[in-house]
Specification:
The complex is a heterodimer of chains A (281) and B (330). Chain A is an all-alpha fold. Chain A has helices at residues 6-33, 43-50, 52-85, 90-97, 105-116, 121-128, 144-173, 176-184, 189-200, 202-217, 221-227, 234-243, 248-272; strands at 35-36, 39-40. The radius of gyration of chain A is 23 Å and the shape is globular. In chain B, helix 2 runs parallel beside helix 4 (136-149) and helix 3 packs across helix 4. Classes of the chains: A mainly alpha (281), B alpha+beta (330).
């Protein structure tokens, strides 16, 4: 006789954990965002959108996601396909490629800062090669494109590995006969990739895109390390409103905007990349 | 349509030899079965012919053309995989059309071939379904249709029936024979099931330990095995081998032994009686050696009975006990 309440008892700790550390803060954040001086109002949102940095932060956040995530997906896909063809040493290569995952966001940001700062490695190398006559500033508000590229590259370097791991797991679950059948039935390597491998990897691509997009909208430490307030994004603005302006209401409004964007992006990926039941293996 | 020549093909994985310098000719339109136990190298040989595996030495010629260095797609062949490998994300129609689409065939030809092969394999009602919506037998038919649709010079089949249940396998075997005869495609068919090889093939190549033990018609393989291995592997129950005083083995099929009157033959003590309907299978000993006898029809024989047996002289296959090879005209 199975114990009816046992499954519920077993998920209770997780449910409690989520309730205390997720649902309650969410409700509190909502309350903070929609209250001004303990009265319900939209004042925090009008202050947020009226702020000079809001448009920049919104644009920077979207630009970062739109550049970094597709590049990461393509890179990780290429790396996963290369791994598949390695006869030996796969584990070592995968391990090396995953190293950025083990480095904290802030440390990764600082690594790139030492490369890209005025007295950094990049300027030293360029100077010694005679490409530049004096150190160039790459990370200033006067060089927005270079600054954006620096942030994007650092973010790509830091987080491509998580996409790679999700794709590698997906690739390993594909029976090798599908690729062999494609090869036998006349598909070139590119055709086999686009007509067989890619469609069959759709569930993995979906998971990777959801995870990466949500996390890229939350990129913070790398951005702060390289750009500071010269490169405002939604999360860094939320941080700034809380810590420099001591205004939790506007910070909470930012948090809700970030959540709304993340939920919307997730729904889009769930819909666009859904695998119909009849096509599941 | 094309013949196949396997010229000194060998394959080693590290230190282990999977195939030892095989030579094999398959005639145009012939159906050849590669038969052997698991690990004998039959699937490796098939995959080398397909180009999915590279041989250590030797050449593969298809239709007189050396394809050894060519990728699978340039070899003009089709393959049916053991687990079918029909693409789950494509409808039956697009699975069947896959090979033709890859080679850039025009729309008329694709439509014609899909119609024709779907008709041949009774798949018309399922053309717009996905493989997950089909039974195992239907998926198997899709895999065969996909292979025949490209009108390959050579059709390779890797244990295509082994994932089906016994009854369906019998049906599909007959259907496959009919369809392939009609298509007239040169076929190499890998199986570990000797009844499948006997039922389908024009010729059977029996592989053992990476070498070909014997090539011949099903009847020759069955009745005149070249080695003790072939006699013991082909046939259910397998051939009996009785050791004689002069160091030879007498190979005799269980159904080639008759009951005779007392004192006129080998003394045989029955230990197990298995009435199978069409046959009565007796297991026992003669002169201390294990012997199986298959008598046609039903017989009232009790366990422990003492009988006398006579092997049919024209069916005896003499073998050298030391080498396990047949002795010519014993």
């Amino acid at each position: 006789m199975p114990i009816r309440w046992l499954p519920y008892a077993l998920i209770a700790p997780a449910a409690l954990f989520l309730g205390v550390l997720f649902v309650i803060p969410l409700v509190q954040t909502g309350a903070l965002a929609f209250q001004v001086h303990d009265a319900w109002a939209l004042g925090n949102f009008t202050r947020m959108t009226g702020d000079l940095n809001f448009a920049d932060a919104l644009r920077n956040s979207f630009q970062l996601v739109l550049v970094a995530v597709p590049v990461q997906l393509c890179l990780a896909m290429g790396m996963a396909m290369m791994l598949r063809h390695l006869q030996r040493g796969r584990a070592i290569v995968l391990w090396v490629w995953s190293i950025p995952l083990g480095i904290s966001d802030l440390a990764a940001g600082l690594v790139w800062l030492t490369i890209l700062t005025d007295q950094g490695y990049l300027n030293s190398v360029l100077f010694h090669l005679g490409v530049i006559a004096a150190p160039e500033g790459w990370l200033t508000y006067e060089t927005p494109f270079a600054l954006f590229m620096a942030v994007a590259i650092a973010e790509i370097w830091r987080a491509t590995a998580i996409v790679l791991l999700i794709l590698v797991a997906g690739v390993q679950m594909l029976p090798k006969e599908y690729g062999e059948a494609a090869a036998v039935f006349g598909a070139s390597p590119w055709q086999a990739f686009t007509k067989v491998t890619l469609p069959l990897l759709r569930p993995s691509i979906q998971s990777a895109l959801i995870l990466r997009t949500v996390l890229a909208f939350e990129a913070f430490a790398v951005v702060m390390a390289l750009g500071g307030r010269n490169f405002p994004v939604l999360v860094s603005e939320a941080y700034a409103w809380k810590h420099f302006n001591q205004d939790t209401g506007v910070a909470a409004a930012y948090a809700l905007v970030i959540m709304a964007i993340s939920v919307a992006a997730t729904l889009v990926f769930l819909r666009l990349l859904r695998t119909p039941v009849e096509q599941q293996t | 349509m094309a013949g196949v020549v396997i010229d000194g093909i060998s394959k080693s994985f590290g230190g282990t030899v999977a195939l030892a310098a095989l030579d094999l000719d398959v005639a145009d339109r012939e159906f050849l079965a590669l038969l052997g136990p698991s690990g004998c190298g039959k699937t490796t040989l098939l995959r080398i012919i397909a180009g999915l595996e590279t041989a250590t030495t030797g050449r593969v010629l298809i239709g007189g053309r050396d394809v050894t260095q060519l990728p699978p797609r340039a070899r003009g062949l089709a393959m049916v995989f053991q687990n079918y490998a029909v693409f789950p994300h494509l409808r039956v129609r697009d699975n069947i059309a896959f090979g033709l689409k890859m080679s850039g065939a025009d729309r008329d030809r694709i439509a014609r071939q899909v119609r024709r092969t779907a008709g041949l394999l009774q798949l018309e009602p399922y053309l717009d379904r996905y493989p997950a919506q089909l039974s195992g037998g239907q998926r198997q038919r899709v895999a065969v249709a996909r292979a025949l649709a490209v009108e390959p010079a050579l059709l390779l089949m890797d244990e295509p029936l082994s994932n089906l249940d016994a009854l369906l396998r019998l049906d599909m075997r007959a259907e496959l024979k009919d369809v392939l005869r009609e298509a007239g495609t040169t076929t190499i068919y890998v199986t570990h099931d000797q009844t499948e090889a006997m039922a389908l093939a024009d010729r059977i190549a029996v592989l053992h330990g990476g070498q070909i033990e014997q090539i011949g018609s099903p009847s020759a393989i069955y009745h005149t095995p070249a080695t003790r291995f072939v006699g013991g592997f082909v046939g259910a129950p397998p051939m009996n081998f009785l050791r004689t005083a002069d160091g030879r083995l007498m190979g005799i099929r269980p159904e080639d032994i008759d009951l005779v009157d007392e004192d006129a033959g080998l003394a045989f003590r029955v230990s197990v009686v298995e009435p199978l309907g069409a046959q009565t299978l007796l297991t026992g000993t003669t002169d201390g050696q294990l012997l199986r006898v298959a008598l046609a029809g039903e017989h009232a024989i009790a366990t422990g009975a003492a009988l006398y047996l006579r092997p049919r002289p024209d069916r005896i296959r003499w073998m050298d006990a030391a080498t396990g090879r047949a002795i010519a005209a014993g």
